[in-house]
Amino acid sequence: MTTPSPLLPAFARSELAFARGEGARLFTADGTSYLDFAAGIAVNSLGHCHPHLVAALKAQAETLWHVSNMYRIPEQEKLGARLVEATFADYAFFTNSGAEALEASIKMARKYHAAKGAPERYRLITFEGAFHGRTLATIAAGGQAKYLEGFGPKVDGFDQVPFADHEAVRAAIGPHTAGILIEPLQGEGGIRPVPPQCLRGLRALCDEHGLLLIFDEVQTGVGRTGKLFAHEWANVTPDIMAIAKGIGGGFPIGACLSTKEAGIGMTAGTHGTTFGGNPLACAVGNAVLDVVLAPGFLDHVNDVAGYAKQKLAALKDRHPQVIEAVRGEGLMMGLKVIPPVGDVVQALRKQHLLTVGAGDNTVRLLPPLVITRGDVDEALVSLENACREFETARASSTKGEAA
Ligand SMILES: *Cc1c(COP(=O)(O)O)cnc(C)c1O
């Protein structure tokens, strides 16, 4: 008999447990190796136990972990300055997670209008298929029934429109609208890219109506798509941006970045966090940036992503009964599949390739950004094997039907 788990059964966990990680590989206690194209859901941006991150974490652990935002935190100031330098932003507010970065973004947008004398402008327009986190406000922002169900009244202030529907956005703008919140490329929703002209259209609508444009780059950020941030592909900038996942490389850290103007309402005492931006987290964030901002790093991401894209397109052509479409940007890749996505993720696990399921029956491939073409080739062997397995199963079931 198995002992009852002390853990709240809120996750549908696999039986797998890993003991060790190195680069793009994870190892179980018995030494079995898996190629990690999940990267803790786009978190382990530099793979497992990257030597530079390990060194930074160890050095900071022996110096100072936590002091509170009552004091100046040099590591936080340095990380903030680097993020500001590399983006549209003038300010950074550090958090421990993506959802908290979104909460800060949502509060900032509301407070901005309040500070401008229009507190009635508190509503954000969001999009179908969106995912912004699991707090009460972010499940309301995401608007997915399965996450809202049973948790009481939905937090007010979010108006959802169909994905990438410019006219619906225009029609949804009213006297209470504060801004527009969007992922430049939907992650949980199934690796659905927002067309660049749509992002530019949203920027124009915000400028026309005095609204704030908020990008959720929690999953797309920090080099994942081949640019430091995905919105750079569309050549538009937001007023506020939430980041997390990749910036910590596995250490929990997020941030709300904003222009000076968007931050006008967030004066001392209006928002806070105990842990956010502590020395330990920021030391690791700085170490991640040391690598991601180094010359040539994003070129590597784009090179290996281009290679993977070609290989995946050829795979789809060979297996049209399993793979319906290949999509994504950079190393944020999705395979829209025909068998149930959970079955495909499971079949790939059996082939020792780790991936993540997403909405729209899509398998997400989110490898560490440091993978090589050789790793892509290895993943393709697993993908090929899994596709064949589904075709064989399908062929024998149709034979059964005919008989
Ligand atoms: C993961 C994710 C979040 C939530 O981040 P947590 O760290 O889990 O709170 C929000 N938005 C997007 C786009 C995400 O991918």
UniProtKB/TrEMBL annotation:
<dbReference type="GO" id="GO:0030170">
    <property type="term" value="F:pyridoxal phosphate binding"/>
</dbReference>
<feature type="modified residue" description="N6-(pyridoxal phosphate)lysine">
    <location>
        <position position="245"/>
    </location>
</feature>
<feature type="binding site">
    <location>
        <begin position="216"/>
        <end position="219"/>
    </location>
    <ligand>
        <name>pyridoxal 5'-phosphate</name>
    </ligand>
</feature>
<feature type="binding site">
    <location>
        <begin position="98"/>
        <end position="99"/>
    </location>
    <ligand>
        <name>pyridoxal 5'-phosphate</name>
    </ligand>
</feature>
<dbReference type="InterPro" id="IPR015422">
    <property type="entry name" value="PyrdxlP-dep_Trfase_small"/>
</dbReference>
<keyword id="KW-0963">Cytoplasm</keyword>
<dbReference type="InterPro" id="IPR004636">
    <property type="entry name" value="AcOrn/SuccOrn_fam"/>
</dbReference>
<dbReference type="InterPro" id="IPR050103">
    <property type="entry name" value="Class-III_PLP-dep_AT"/>
</dbReference>
<dbReference type="InterPro" id="IPR015424">
    <property type="entry name" value="PyrdxlP-dep_Trfase"/>
</dbReference>
<feature type="binding site">
    <location>
        <position position="274"/>
    </location>
    <ligand>
        <name>pyridoxal 5'-phosphate</name>
    </ligand>
</feature>
<keyword id="KW-0028">Amino-acid biosynthesis</keyword>
<keyword id="KW-0032">Aminotransferase</keyword>
<dbReference type="Pfam" id="PF00202">
    <property type="entry name" value="Aminotran_3"/>
</dbReference>
<feature type="binding site">
    <location>
        <position position="134"/>
    </location>
    <ligand>
        <name>N(2)-acetyl-L-ornithine</name>
    </ligand>
</feature>
<comment type="pathway">
    <text>Amino-acid biosynthesis; L-arginine biosynthesis; N(2)-acetyl-L-ornithine from L-glutamate: step 4/4.</text>
</comment>
<dbReference type="InterPro" id="IPR015421">
    <property type="entry name" value="PyrdxlP-dep_Trfase_major"/>
</dbReference>
<keyword id="KW-0808">Transferase</keyword>
<comment type="subunit">
    <text>Homodimer.</text>
</comment>
<protein>
    <recommendedName>
        <fullName>Acetylornithine aminotransferase</fullName>
        <ecNumber>2.6.1.11</ecNumber>
    </recommendedName>
</protein>
<dbReference type="GO" id="GO:0003992">
    <property type="term" value="F:N2-acetyl-L-ornithine:2-oxoglutarate 5-aminotransferase activity"/>
</dbReference>
<dbReference type="GO" id="GO:0006526">
    <property type="term" value="P:L-arginine biosynthetic process"/>
</dbReference>
<keyword id="KW-0663">Pyridoxal phosphate</keyword>
<comment type="similarity">
    <text>Belongs to the class-III pyridoxal-phosphate-dependent aminotransferase family. ArgD subfamily.</text>
</comment>
<dbReference type="GO" id="GO:0042802">
    <property type="term" value="F:identical protein binding"/>
</dbReference>
<feature type="binding site">
    <location>
        <position position="131"/>
    </location>
    <ligand>
        <name>pyridoxal 5'-phosphate</name>
    </ligand>
</feature>
<dbReference type="InterPro" id="IPR049704">
    <property type="entry name" value="Aminotrans_3_PPA_site"/>
</dbReference>
<dbReference type="InterPro" id="IPR005814">
    <property type="entry name" value="Aminotrans_3"/>
</dbReference>
<feature type="binding site">
    <location>
        <position position="273"/>
    </location>
    <ligand>
        <name>N(2)-acetyl-L-ornithine</name>
    </ligand>
</feature>
<keyword id="KW-0055">Arginine biosynthesis</keyword>
<dbReference type="GO" id="GO:0005737">
    <property type="term" value="C:cytoplasm"/>
</dbReference>
